[in-house]
Amino acid sequence: MTTHTCTKCSQSQPIDQFYIDKRTGRPAWGCKSCRREYERNPQRTAYRKAYHATRHQTPERQASFKERWLEQKYGMTPDSWAAMSLDQGGRCFICGWVPTGRGTLYVDHDHANGRVRGLLCPPCNSFLGRMNDSADAIRRAAAYVENGGSAYAVACGYGPQLSSQGCQ
Q1: What domains can you pick out in the chain, each with its CATH number?
Q2: Angle at alpha carbon of residue 15, lines to 12 and 17, rounded to 5°
Q3: Is residue 18 exposed (0-12), middle (13-18) or buried (19+ Cβ within 10 Å)?
Q4: Is the pTM of this model over 0.70?
Q5: How far is it, in rounded angstroms, from Cα 67 to Cα 79?
Q6: Contact present, 152 and 139 (Cβ < 8 Å)
Q7: In this structure, are residues 116 and 83 in contact, taking their beta carbons and an 8 Å threshold?
Q8: How far apart are CA 5 and CA 30, in angstroms?
Q9: pLDDT tens-digit profile of 142-153?
């Protein structure tokens, strides 16, 4: 059986007493019991909570992160994003939702060519992504909603107060 020495307690232990580093595939620096003790250290826990709570929270950091993201991902500046938002009336292009509080509109782009199409709310942006930007799939979804669901579900009587009437 292969053993490894813990750098914290200096004990040689079986390899299964160590977490394996996903990046390197090698045993971590400390055995599982030393790692647990390290993770539960109240000072470390307090530091981590404070670090993560303030990491991107300052307005300057948030703004610089958003600026870099817009430029790198879409080739946009904050001014061009603001102009697009103004053109859309500050609303989601599809459903008309207006961001409130910390909400924001997402940049929607064509995955095939990277061209920016507009600004969408998170649910509409996710919907397009899940439909793989397929106009046919979106048309089928619209027809499904307009027609009251699938023909099978309607014919079999499925619904909020209904149960199956024996359709196979």
Answers
A1: 3-54 (no CATH), 64-127 (3.40.1800.10), 134-168 (no CATH)
A2: 80
A3: buried
A4: no
A5: 10
A6: no
A7: no
A8: 8
A9: 888 888 777 666
pLDDT in tens, 38-70: 888 888 888 888 777 776 667 777 778 888 888
Q: For the purposes of burial, counting CB atoms within 10 Å of the CB of 70, is it exposed (0-12), middle (13-18) or buried (19 or more)?
A: middle
Tokens 């500050």 — which residue?
90
Nearest to 83 by CA among 42, 38, 119: 119
CA 67/CA 61 separation, integer angstroms: 10
Of the listed ranges 93-102, 129-138, 145-154, the least confidently predicted one is: 145-154
With beta carbons less than 8 A apart as the criterion, state whether 9 and 31 touch. yes
